[in-house]
Amino acid sequence: MKVERKQSVVLVPFLLQGHLTPMLQLGSILYSQGFSVIVAHTQHNAPNYSNHPEFVFHSMDDGLKGMDMSFPGLKSIYRMNESCKAPLRNYLVRMMEEEEEGDQLACIIYDNIMFFVDDVATQLRLPSIVLRTYSAAYLDSMLTILQQPEKYFPFKDSQLLDPLPELHPLRFKDIPINVVNNTVHAPILDFSRSMSDIGSSVATIWNTMQDLENSLLLSLQEHYKVPFFTLGPFHKMAPMASSTSILEEDNSCIEWLDRQAPNSVLYVSLGSLMRIDDKELIETAWGLVNSDQPFLWVIRPGSVYGFQCAEALPDGFEEMVAERGRIVKWAPQKQVLAHPAVAGFFTHCGWNSTLESILEEVPLICRPFLADQPVNARYLSQIYKVGFELEVMERTVIEKTIRKLMLSEEGKDVKKRVVDMKQNIVAAMQIDGTSHKNLNDLVDFISALPS
Ligand code: UDX
């Protein structure tokens, strides 16, 4: 049966895996509500079209050819924002010219790092909506710092463990803005301001839950003064579970998990972007071995400085752990976390990984690096108490933390709390739950936008 589609929405994701995934999930959510979905994406890290036959894709010349994109810096982000302007504008103009009655373009929804979209939307008089792919706690802490940076910078080494003024439970070491030599440089402040600004956008959509972050959202709402639609967790709200991976998933680890005892395996992954040095790789390897727990470890190509992949592991490591450990380059993470054999997640606390873990009732070991990760780690360990922080990357500490999570009474308490936390989030997704209601409100809101 052919479904009569409502208006179209154009989605503009940012090119990193952790940003592309929630945007595509939002696309599936909106498609299921009857919208036509067009994804205007960069050439770099283009999504796999065949996983999303329901979307129309449009590739934009991103100007990134020849640039080192192993860790996109400000230069590439600004260049991309500049380069994509004309391709998006031209595409939208063509679309609007060809528009038929009842098939109007309702709005553009863009990742907040694609801030060029605001200019294009304003020029074309199209409504735009910003997508926040992270927690309210992260944006709130960033805004607080941006309002009075002199209150926080520069700081002394001796202050690293001191509480950050007005930002409980964060400490100076958790500052979610790129810090160099205990201070922040003007270009980073400018970038953070661009990312937090919503320009002329008429609303923001969040991959978080109102019940979880209510007071932070209320305070942010006062600042932004446009409607907020919290629809999280996207990966459970999205009816289609198509893979959004840019790298190829190694599904053989699921058969390996099938052979492990229930609730016995530690899953280790630091997401799509973070990198460690060989010393940390080796300390992690020994921590895993000495903990005596089965583990599934993702070592992404390029994730160890100076090495292609896992060559820096101690000699004979894989033979030593044999059937007790499994290393893959990229895992089908959501399936892994949902597997009954998995008991814990050693993570960098990216927001997608955080939500995926909680929704499968998997408690966490938090090893954050930058941006929102330290904020997530502090909330997970200090406020929600569903994980333990790992602050010293030394083999004995790693071993102890793994054992604490997997074997101790404290570990059991953390597991109980993550089960409760999941229940509360699931409630938000029910018919009378906040995410469900907010989705209905968003559909009405978009449908009523002037076109
Ligand atoms: C980035 C930032 O680092 C993160 O802090 C921010 O919240 C989003 O953007 P990333 O580091 O990749 O993302 O972390 P995360 O948000 O956890 O996203 C990683 C995604 O890759 C998850 O959806 C996870 O399921 C997926 N993944 C990861 C796999 O599918 N397989 C893997 O082996 C590892």
TrEMBL record:
The keyword Acetylation does not apply. PROSITE patterns: UDPGT. The keyword Glycosyltransferase applies. Its EC number is 2.4.1.-. SUPFAM superfamilies: UDP-Glycosyltransferase/glycogen phosphorylase. It holds the Pfam family UDPGT. It is an enzyme of class 2 (transferase). One of its GO terms (molecular function) is UDP-glucosyltransferase activity. Keywords: Glycosyltransferase, Transferase. InterPro entries: UDP_glucos_trans, UDP_glycos_trans_CS. Belongs to the UDP-glycosyltransferase family. This is Glycosyltransferase. The lineage of its organism: Eukaryota, Viridiplantae, Streptophyta, Embryophyta, Tracheophyta.
